[in-house]
C-alpha cells in the first residue's frame, strides 16, 4: 500500500466543513491523512441561521458537526488555532500555536470578515459586527443596558440584524448609505415597498446617510454625525456594510489575490499554486466573490471531484436570494436590474396590499432573466425554477406575477418540473434525486432532508421540497403514518423495544399492555414474527398460533387453490442421491407436482392440509427438515460448487454455505433473508444479489450485505474484506440481529439499510466498531436463537394436539372436494375454473 | 324456530383463530374469540380466490367490527354481516351460531 498523502484544510467554517463531509463521502477518503485548522473556538456551525440564536437556538443546535465526525473519520482538528503562514516551496503550514504540518494538498476556506467603514469612532465600546456566535453573545450582553440601536447598512444581512435588535427590545434604526435598501438586489420600486414594510415593523429607515463620525452622545452612549448635518443618538452600533474575503494568509505567502481582494481561483478552484485550492467566500472566480453558501458548496464539490480525478468545474453560481425576516417577504432572482441586453420588464404594483413584483425577461419573452418580489414572495420557488432550468415562459409572462382572479393556477406545479430540475441549490439536489429518496421510503420532510440534504442549507427550497414530497406521496396514494396499524400506535421498532424491555411474550399481552381492539392481520403477523425472533419458542404454541400468518400456522405455503407446497431444507443446495430418491418417492406417493426452485432446492406442490403431517413425517424419516419456505425467516443459502470441484475455486463455498444455513435456519425476521456463498470472484452463486453474500478471496472471505433480487433489485454493498470464518460469522450475527431488532415490518435488509441514518457507514460503525456497545448483546441473542433451534415440523408431528389443526373439517374426515387437479406435462396442476365446473357436472351425473 | 345443528365441542375450536365445519354439504368457517366470549360463523368460500379457505385467515377487528382476512389475497370480511371491506358489492353469508353446554351449534336458517 502506498503511503497516505496529507491534506490540510485551513478554516472549518460552513464551506470548509462541507468540503470535509464531501471528501469523507467519496471514494478517495482513505487516500489522505486529513488535518484542519479552525481559528474559532468551536468547529463549524450554521452561520446562515445565526440570527436564530436570538430566538433560543444554542451553539449546539447551530453546530454542523455530527457526533463523532472528526474522531470517527480520523480527522485531526486544531481548534482555536489559526494558520498563519504557508511555505509553498517546502509545503508547510504553520499555526499561531506553533503547529507545523507538511501538506501534499492544501485547501483554503477562510471565509470573509465583516467590513467596517473607516469612520472616526468606529472602535468605540458597543460597536459590533455580525458574523460569529461570539459577536452575538457580546451584542446580547450590551443590549441589556441599551435602549437604542443602529444598524449601519441596509442589505440582506443588515435588515436581518435590525430585526434581531428590534427583538432585543431596542428602538432600532437602519442607516443606509445609498438611497435604497438592498441595493444589490432590488430596483427602486421594490426597495421603496420594502422600506415601507420595514417601517411597519417599527424600525426606522434612514436612507442616503453617510456616517462621518461617532462621538459621545448626550442621551445615549454614542452620537452619529452624518454628512448631511443630521445626527442620531444610539447606545449600540452594528456595522453590516459588506464583507471582504480573508485572503491575508494567501497574500503573505505569495499566492495570487484579486485586484479587489480574494484568492484567485480557476474553474477547478485551484489557486496560482496547483497544490492549493481555495473555496467559499475567500475565493474570487472570474473577478467575482460569492457571499452565499451555495456557491461555496459547489466549489467544495468541485475540489473533491478534482481530487478524485474527475472532470469537474466551477463555472459561476446563482445569486438569487430571499430575505429571512418574519413578516417581510422579499426575494430577488438573477438579473433584477435588467442589465442584460434587450431585457424586457413587467412590473406589478399593488399599493393597497403593499405588493411589488417585477419580472425581467429575454427579448423574445421566452426566458426568465430575473425577478424581484416584495410583499408576496410565494412565487419565488416557481420563478426560480423557470430561471435556473431555462423553462419556457407561458405565452403571457405577466400572468406569473398578476394575481390570479380566477381559479386557474399559473404556477409551475412540482409535477411540471423535469427530473433534472434543481430543487435545492445549496446542496445541488435535483427533483429526480428527491423522488428516488421518496420511493425509498423517506416520507417526511425530516427524513428527506436527512437523506438528500435538501433544505438543510439556507432553507429557501423548503416549501418547494414539501410540495414535491406531497405531490409524490399523493401520486402513490400514501398516507403518512408510521403506526403499524389501528391497534398499535407504534412503529415496529418501538414495539420491539417494548417487548425486550417489558419481556412481553404473547400477542395478548401486547394487546392489553400497548394496544387496543382485537388486532388484525398486520399487527398479529408483525408481532408474531417479533416474538418468534426474540424468544424463539415453538411457533405453534397456543397463544402464538393466532398470530402467525396462514403459511406459518400450517407450516407450508398456501397455493392459489387452497392446497400447500412443501419445501424441505437442502442446505447449500446440496442433496444426496438417497435424499433425492426419497423426495421422489414421497412426491410420487402423494401425487405432488415437483419442481426445482430458484433457491436451489425442490418444492413439492399440491398437498392438502390433511396430507401435510403425513408427508412431513416421511420427509423427516428420510432425514429432511423444514425449509422455512413459509416463514419470514432464513430461506436458502445458495452456493456454487467451489474449490472442491471447480478449477477456479479459492475456498470451499459449499461447506461454508451449509454451515451458515445450519446456523441461521429458523431465525425469524422482519422479512425473508437469503444468503449465497461463491467460491471465487466469478460469483456463480450471485452472492451480491443477496441479503448476505460471501465471496472467497485469497485472503479469506469478503462479506457483502443488504442486496436482493425481487421487485426492486439492489446489489449488496461490500461490508468487510478478507475475514477469517470466525469474524465473518460474528459480523453476520450482529448484522442480522440488528436488522431483526430495528427494521420496519416487511422491510428487507436493503430498504432497512437505505433508510438508516448514516446508511452503510453507520451500520459498519455499529457492527465493526461497536459504536453502540451492542455487539456482545447481539451475538448473545443470535447464539440463543441458534441454541434453541428446532425443526418445527418435527415438533409438530410429535404432538397429537397440534395435529388436530391439520384437517379440513372440524366435524368430518372428508376432504375439500373443490380441490381438483388435471394433468399437464406428466404432472398434476390445479384445475382452472372451467375445468372444475366440468368435473363437478360429471360427478353429479 | 331455528333448527340448531350440533357441530363439535368447544375444545375442538381454535382460540382467536378459525376451523372449518361441514354442515349439510356447506363449508362454514367458525371463529372463536374466548376473551370477548364471541363466536362467529361465515361461509368458508373466498369469493376472490374462488376457493374454500376463509377459516384459515387471521382475525381481528377494523374499528371495532370483528373481521377475518383471507389468507390468499388479504381481503377482509365482517364476521357479523359477511360484508367485504374492500369491495362493497361482495358479501358472504353469515350464520347463527351459539355455544350450548360446551357444544357448538349452527343454524342455517339465519
Ligand atoms: C418457489 C419459488 C419459485 C420457483 O419455483 O423457483 C418462489 C415462490 C414464491 N415466491 Fe419467490 N420464489 C422462489 C425464489 C425467489 C427468488 C430467487 C432466489 O431466492 O434466489 C427471488 C428473488 C431473490 C430475492 O428474494 O431477493 C424471489 C423473490 C420473491 C419476492 C420478491 C421479494 C422482494 O424483496 O422483492 C416475493 C414476494 C414477497 O416475498 O413479498 C416472493 C414470493 C414468493 C411466494 C411466496 C409468493 C406467495 O406468497 O405465494 C411464492 C411461494 C412459493 C411456494 O409456495 O413455495 N418471491 N423468489 C422459489 C423458492 C425458493 C426457495 O427454494 O425457497
Ligand atoms: C447572519 C448571517 C446570515 C446569513 N444568511 C445567509 C443566507 O441566508 N444565505 C446564504 O447563502 N448565506 C448567508 N450568509 C452567508 C454564509 O454564512 C456564508 O456564505 C458562509 O458562512 C461562507 O462559508 P465559508 O466557509 O466560506 O466562511 P465561514 O463560514 O466564515 O468560515 C470561515 C472560517 O475560517 C476561519 N478562518 C479564517 N482564517 C483562518 C486561518 N488562517 N486559520 C484557521 N481558521 C481560519 C474563520 O474563523 C471561520 O471560522 C449569512 C451570514 C451571516 C453572518
Ligand atoms: S415470480 Fe411471481 S409467480 Fe413466480 S413464483 Fe415468484 S411470486 Fe410466484
Ligand atoms: S436551496 Fe438552500 S437549502 Fe436548499
Structure notes:
The complex is a heterodimer of chains A (845) and B (110). Chain A is α/β, with parallel strands linked by helices and 845 residues long. Chain A is 31% helix and 20% strand. In chain A, the strands form eleven sheets. A five-stranded parallel sheet of chain A has the order 3-2-1-7-19. In chain A, strands 9-16-10-11-12 form a five-stranded parallel sheet. In chain A, strand 23 (344-350) and strand 24 (355-361) form a beta hairpin. Chain A is elongated and about 110 Å long. The termini of chain A are far apart. The relative contact order of chain A is 0.05. In chain B, the strands form three sheets. Chain B has a six-stranded antiparallel sheet with strand order 1-11-10-4-3-2, with no helix packed on it. A three-stranded antiparallel sheet of chain B has the order 7-8-9, with no helix packed on it. Chain B has a two-stranded antiparallel ribbon with strand order 5-6. The model of chain B has no long low-confidence stretch (mean pLDDT 91). Classes of the chains: A alpha/beta (845), B mainly beta (110). The interface between A and B is large, with 37 and 39 residues. The complex binds siroheme, flavin-adenine dinucleotide, iron/sulfur cluster and FE2/S2 (inorganic) cluster (FES). The site of flavin-adenine dinucleotide (FAD) has 34 residues of chain A, from helix 1, strand 2, helix 5 and helix 8.
Amino acid at each position: 500500500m502506498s503511503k497516505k498523502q496529507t491534506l490540510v484544510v485551513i478554516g472549518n467554517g460552513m464551506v470548509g466543513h462541507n468540503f470535509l463531509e464531501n471528501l469523507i463521502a467519496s471514494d478517495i477518503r482513505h487516500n489522505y491523512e486529513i488535518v484542519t485548522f479552525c481559528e474559532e473556538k468551536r468547529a463549524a456551525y450554521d452561520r446562515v441561521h445565526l440570527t436564530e440564536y436570538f430566538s433560543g437556538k444554542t451553539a449546539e443546535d447551530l453546530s454542523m458537526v455530527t457526533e463523532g465526525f472528526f474522531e470517527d473519520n480520523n480527522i485531526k482538528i486544531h481548534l482555536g488555532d489559526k494558520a498563519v503562514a504557508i511555505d509553498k516551496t517546502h509545503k508547510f503550514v504553520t499555526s499561531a500555536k506553533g503547529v507545523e504540518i507538511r501538506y501534499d494538498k492544501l485547501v483554503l476556506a477562510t471565509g470573509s470578515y465583516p467590513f467596517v467603514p473607516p469612520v472616526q469612532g468606529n472602535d468605540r465600546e458597543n460597536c459590533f459586527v455580525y458574523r460569529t456566535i461570539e459577536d452575538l453573545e457580546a451584542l446580547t450582553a450590551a443590549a441589556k443596558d441599551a435602549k437604542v440601536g443602529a444598524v449601519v447598512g441596509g442589505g440582506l444581512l443588515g435588515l436581518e440584524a435590525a430585526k434581531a435588535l428590534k427583538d432585543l427590545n431596542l428602538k432600532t434604526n437602519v442607516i443606509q448609505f445609498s438611497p435604497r435598501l438592498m441595493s444589490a438586489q432590488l430596483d427602486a420600486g421594490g426597495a421603496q415597498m420594502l422600506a415601507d414594510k420595514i417601517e411597519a415593523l417599527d424600525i426606522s429607515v434612514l436612507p442616503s446617510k453617510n456616517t462621518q463620525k461617532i462621538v459621545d452622545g448626550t442621551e445615549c452612549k454614542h452620537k452619529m454625525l452624518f454628512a448631511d448635518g443630521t445626527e442620531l443618538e444610539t447606545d449600540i452600533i452594528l456595522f453590516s456594510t459588506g464583507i471582504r474575503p480573508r485572503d491575508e494568509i494567501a497574500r503573505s505567502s505569495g499566492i495570487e489575490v484579486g485586484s479587489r481582494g480574494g484568492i484567485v481561483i480557476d474553474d477547478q478552484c485551484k489557486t496560482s499554486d496547483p497544490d492549493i485550492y481555495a473555496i467559499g467566500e475567500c475565493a474570487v472566480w472570474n473577478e467575482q466573490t460569492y457571499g452565499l453558501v451555495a456557491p461555496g458548496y459547489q466549489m467544495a464539490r468541485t475540489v473533491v471531484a478534482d481530487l478524485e480525478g474527475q472532470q469537474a468545474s466551477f463555472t459561476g453560481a446563482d445569486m438569487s436570494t430571499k430575505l429571512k425576516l418574519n413578516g417581510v417577504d422579499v426575494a430577488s432572482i438573477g438579473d433584477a436590474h435588467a442589465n442584460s441586453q434587450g431585457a424586457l420588464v413587467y412590473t406589478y404594483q399593488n399599493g393597497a396590499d403593499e405588493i411589488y413584483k417585477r419580472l425581467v425577461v429575454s427579448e423574445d419573452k421566452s426566458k426568465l432573466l430575473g425577478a424581484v418580489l416584495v410583499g408576496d414572495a410565494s412565487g419565488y420557488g416557481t420563478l426560480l425554477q423557470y430561471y435556473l432550468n431555462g423553462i419556457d415562459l407561458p405565452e403571457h409572462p405577466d400572468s406569473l406575477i398578476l394575481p390570479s382572479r380566477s381559479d386557474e393556477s399559473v404556477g409551475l406545479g412540482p409535477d411540471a418540473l423535469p427530473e433534472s430540475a434543481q430543487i435545492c441549490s445549496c446542496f445541488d439536489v435535483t427533483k429526480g434525486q428527491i423522488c428516488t429518496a421518496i420511493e425509498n421510503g423517506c416520507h417526511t420532510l425530516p427524513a428527506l432532508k436527512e437523506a438528500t440534504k435538501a433544505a438543510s442549507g439556507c432553507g429557501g427550497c423548503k416549501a418547494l421540497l414539501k410540495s414535491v414530497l406531497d405531490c409524490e406521496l399523493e401520486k402513490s396514494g400514501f398516507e403518512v403514518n408510521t403506526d403499524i396499524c389501528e391497534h398499535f400506535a407504534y412503529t415496529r421498532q418501538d414495539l420491539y423495544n417494548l417487548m425486550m424491555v417489558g419481556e412481553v411474550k404473547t400477542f395478548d399481552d401486547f394487546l392489553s399492555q400497548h394496544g387496543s381492539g382485537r388486532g388484525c392481520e398486520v399487527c398479529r403477523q408483525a408481532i408474531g414474527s417479533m416474538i418468534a425472533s426474540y424468544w424463539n419458542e415453538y411457533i405453534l404454541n397456543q397463544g402464538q398460533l393466532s398470530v402467525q400468518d396462514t403459511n406459518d400456522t400450517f407450516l407450508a405455503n398456501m397455493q392459489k387453490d387452497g392446497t400447500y407446497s412443501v419445501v424441505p431444507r437442502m442446505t447449500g443446495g446440496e442433496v444426496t442421491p438417497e435424499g433425492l430418491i426419497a423426495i421422489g418417492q414421497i412426491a410420487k406417493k402423494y401425487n405432488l407436482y415437483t419442481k426445482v426452485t430458484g433457491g436451489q432446492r425442490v418444492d413439492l406442490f399440491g398437498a392438502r392440509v390433511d396430507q401435510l403431517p403425513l408427508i412431513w413425517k416421511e420427509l423427516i424419516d428420510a432425514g429432511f427438515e423444514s425449509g422455512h419456505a413459509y416463514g419470514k425467516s432464513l430461506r436458502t443459502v445458495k452456493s456454487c460448487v467451489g474449490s472442491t470441484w471447480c478449477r477456479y475455486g479459492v475456498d470451499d463455498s459449499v461447506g461454508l454455505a451449509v454451515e451458515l444455513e445450519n446456523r441461521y435456519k429458523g431465525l425469524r425476521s422482519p422479512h425473508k433473508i437469503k444468503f449465497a456463498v461463491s467460491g471465487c470472484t466469478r460469483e456463480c452463486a450471485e452472492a451480491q444479489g443477496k441479503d448476505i453474500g460471501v465471496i472467497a478471496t485469497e485472503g479469506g472471505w469478503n462479506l457483502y450485505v443488504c442486496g436482493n433480487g425481487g421487485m426492486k433489485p439492489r446489489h449488496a454493498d461490500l461490508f468487510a474484506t478478507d475475514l477469517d470464518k470466525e469474524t465473518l460469522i460474528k459480523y453476520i450475527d450482529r448484522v442480522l440481529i440488528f436488522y431483526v431488532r430495528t427494521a420496519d415490518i416487511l422491510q428487507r435488509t436493503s430498504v432497512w439499510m437505505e433508510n438508516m441514518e448514516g446508511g452503510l457507514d453507520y451500520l459498519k460503525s455499529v457492527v465493526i466498531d461497536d459504536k453502540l456497545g451492542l455487539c456482545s448483546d447481539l451475538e448473545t441473542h443470535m447464539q440463543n436463537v441458534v441454541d434453541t433451534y428446532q425443526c418445527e415440523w418435527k415438533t409438530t408431528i410429535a404432538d397429537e394436539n397440534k395435529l388436530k389443526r391439520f384437517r379440513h373439517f372440524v366435524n368430518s374426515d372428508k376432504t375439500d372436494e373443490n380441490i381438483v387437479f388435471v394433468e399437464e406435462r406428466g404432472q398434476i396442476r390445479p384445475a382452472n375454473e372451467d375445468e372444475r365446473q366440468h368435473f363437478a357436472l360429471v360427478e353429479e351425473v | 324456530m331455528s333448527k340448531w345443528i350440533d357441530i363439535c365441542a368447544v375444545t375442538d375450536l381454535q382460540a382467536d383463530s378459525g376451523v372449518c365445519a361441514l354442515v349439510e354439504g356447506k363449508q362454514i368457517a367458525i371463529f372463536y374469540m374466548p376473551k370477548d366470549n364471541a363466536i362467529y360463523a361465515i361461509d368458508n368460500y373466498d369469493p376472490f380466490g374462488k376457493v374454500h379457505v376463509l377459516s384459515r385467515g387471521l382475525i381481528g377487528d377494523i374499528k371495532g367490527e370483528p373481521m377475518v382476512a383471507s389468507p390468499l389475497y388479504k381481503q377482509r370480511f365482517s364476521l357479523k354481516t359477511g360484508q367485504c371491506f374492500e369491495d362493497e358489492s361482495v358479501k358472504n353469508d353469515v350464520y347463527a351460531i351459539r355455544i350450548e353446554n360446551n357444544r357448538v351449534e349452527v343454524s342455517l336458517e339465519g
